Amino acid sequence: MKIYTKTGDDGTTGLIGNVRVMKNNPRIEAYGTSDELNSWVGLLSCRVTSDKDREVLQNIQRQLFALGADLATAPQKNMGKTRITQDMTLWLEMQIDTYEAELPSMKGFILPGGNEVAAICHLCRTTARRMERRIYDLHEQESVSNDILQYVNRLSDFFFVLARKAANRDGQEIFL
């Protein structure tokens, strides 16, 4: 099977449910940014030294695939059901709370960076924020599940706390 289909040569792409939309459709922007974030998380997963962190990140990658599938499904075909659930948001909150419990109080604004892992975490955080904005662009046109909206909001918080953990581990957290 060839990787190219030539069906997108006219500027359209297919959604799950056999619906075609323009490639710059807000839905495509949203799940494309989810895919971009997933790639950054893949790099981050390669760079972390903790097996536990790697396991958490790989779980997030699976969740991002589910999110992408939700966003790539034509709204008339998903019947109001999503793969992203409230339980996934609660799981993210547990991870945030666990990491945050290991950290000292913040002394002010934190500069992105400190070490390579922290810097990649900040790239994930900012990409997650952009993904959230793209999903809200879509939400202005078509209803997006509250479970998705909550999940994507927590995701950037998770990467912020993981960045702090990574920088703090080496004494490299940089305050403004």
From TrEMBL:
Keywords: ATP-binding, Cobalamin biosynthesis, Nucleotide-binding, Transferase
Stored Gene3D superfamilies: Cobalamin adenosyltransferase-like
Domain of life, per lineage: Bacteria
Cobalamin adenosyltransferase-like domain segment(s): 3-166
InterPro entries: CblAdoTrfase-like, CblAdoTrfase-like_sf, PduO-typ
Enzyme class: transferase
Any one Gene Ontology molecular-function term assigned to this protein's record: corrinoid adenosyltransferase activity
EC number: 2.5.1.17
Pfam families: Cob_adeno_trans
Catalytic activity: 2 cob(II)alamin + reduced [electron-transfer flavoprotein] + 2 ATP = 2 adenosylcob(III)alamin + 2 triphosphate + oxidized [electron-transfer flavoprotein] + 3 H(+); 2 cob(II)yrinate a,c diamide + reduced [electron-transfer flavoprotein] + 2 ATP = 2 adenosylcob(III)yrinate a,c-diamide + 2 triphosphate + oxidized [electron-transfer flavoprotein] + 3 H(+)
One BP term from GO: cobalamin biosynthetic process
UniProt pathway annotation: Cofactor biosynthesis; adenosylcobalamin biosynthesis; adenosylcobalamin from cob(II)yrinate a,c-diamide: step 2/7
Entry similarity comment: Belongs to the Cob(I)alamin adenosyltransferase family.
Subunit note: Homotrimer.
Protein name: Corrinoid adenosyltransferase
Organism of derivation: Candidatus Gallipaludibacter merdavium
